[in-house]
Every structure is written in C-alpha cells, then in structure tokens.
Amino acid sequence: MEENYIRKKMSRDIDHLTYHCKGGVEWFSFPILDRFPFLVNAFSTRSGGVSTGDAGAMNLSLAREVAMNMNLTEAQCRANFTENHRRLADAVGYPYESLVFSNQTHTDNIRILQDIDRGNGMTRPNEFNDVDGMMTDITGQALMTFYADCVPLLIVDPVHRAIASVHSGWRGTIKGIGTKAVSMMHAVYGSSPGDLVAAIGPSICMDCFEVSKNVADEFIDKYDSTLHESLVRRGRLTETGEQKYQVNLQLACMENFIMAGMKEDNISLPDICTSCNVDYIFSHRASHGRRGNEGAVLMLR
Length: 301
Prior knowledge:
- This protein is an alpha+beta fold and 301 residues long.
- It folds into 2 domains: 2-204 and 248-300, CNF1/YfiH-like putative cysteine hydrolases (4-Layer Sandwich), CATH 3.60.140; 210-247, no CATH class.
- It is 26% helix and 24% strand.
- The protein has a 6-stranded mixed sheet with strand order 1-2-3-15-7-4. It has a 6-stranded mixed sheet with strand order 5-6-9-8-10-14.
- Helix 5 (177-189) packs parallel to helix 8.
- The relative contact order is 0.19.
- The model has no long low-confidence stretch (mean pLDDT 97).
C-alpha cells in the first residue's frame, strides 16, 4: 500500500513519484514523464509477482531468479520470470514481448537500438553484453533496465521523439554515463540538451549509501568543490577505526545531466530510496545481496 512507503521530503512537485496499483501489481511512474501521452514509463516494486523467498515476489531478472531459488529447476525459474513480466506489462500497459534488456556490468556503454532488437533478453537470449544504457526512436520498443540500489536514468526528447534508459551505479556515475547519453542523443537524433527531460528513479539515498574513502575521493576529484558538501560527507567510524563516507549518488547523476547542458527544472529526483523501503523495493545493500531486481520501463507509443 502507498502509505507504507517511506518517502523523502522534496520541495518540487516533479520529484514526487506517482503510485499505481492494478491487480495486486504496484509500481511508480514519474510525473515529469507522465505529461507526455506518447510515453509509457514505470518503475516496478516487489509486489504482484509469483517469485518466492528472497526474490519474492515481482523479481524481473532471470539470473536473480536462479540465484535465489536453488531448489527450483531452470524451467521453473523461467516460468516465474515470464509470468512476472507478463503481469507487470499487463498492469502498466505495454507488450512484454517487445521488451529489450541488456547485461549490465557498470560500464558507460550505451547501445543504439534497431527494430530487430525487439525482444532481446525476453523472447530470445540476451545478446547485449556489457551494456548499461539503451536508446531508441522506435515506437513499441520497451526499454527495461534493472536495479536494486543503482540509479535509473530515463531520458526523453519530446521534440524528436527519442528515449534513453540508463543504469548508473557509482562506477557509471563517475564515468559520466548520463552525460554520455545526452551527447549520444544529440549526435544520433539531433536532440538539444536544453529540450531533454529526465527522471532519476528510486535508488539508494545518501543516508544509506556508505562507501570507503577511495570511492568518496573519486567523487571529490570529479565534481566541482562547490558541490562537495552536498555530494560527500563523513559517516561513521568502524570498530577498526576506518572512516566511512556517504555519497549522494542521485545528486551526482543530476550534476552529470547539468554538465551535459540539461536544465535543472527538466530533471526530477526521486522521493523514494530503495534501501529505506527494502520490504517493498529490492535493495542490494539492505538485503546483504539476498534479493531480486526491479525494473524501469520506458517506451514510445
């Protein structure tokens, strides 16, 4: 239920995700993208699927289904995976056969999709290895990227009717995958950064994202000193005396967009943290790796 989700206090209306529930399937959409009638956009939750155990219930990753259900056969895992996708697609309103997946490995690689790519990873084996972003201007092609704390970046060009879906963990954020996506959309579709609209999806918040000093230093080195106070802060001392830090990964992704020429008012931040809501959304950190994957869906109608 919506009232059970822990939400962050956000001052902008565009940052407050919209809750949906149909047939027991719960998901969120992004108000900044909902205004475009030619789009389907959604971010799934754990509710409404058939998976069991740590992958329960709406797990959208076949690999996680197998990893979390060693007692099931591969055929049973695939049946759960397919049924979960069918249920989510029916609830949100897109053909699950048109989904396109990639094998995400925290790179800054982005693939430009062709019509023949429809169904990759869903109706046939996933052939896109080491790909953390996809972009298309083809209608009816549902881009899905997978998460369990990393940051979803959904980018829309309302002028040229083109979209990109990007998986940005801390490594991808440091590599500037969001900035690269904007640059590629300009090169391929003629997109003007000032026209682009982007939703930054549910992901781990600064309070929950604890890192070591070497990771914190990478963010300090990458971003302007005026942002350091907002991006990185000292956290706890461990029992061994190690200083931990906390990083605002979502704000870093927003800054990557701004550095690419996007307007701050065209970028929404999430009011929901995956780790704060581990009972309702998969979180790798909060579950200590015992989890499934949720998915972000973006499609041109």
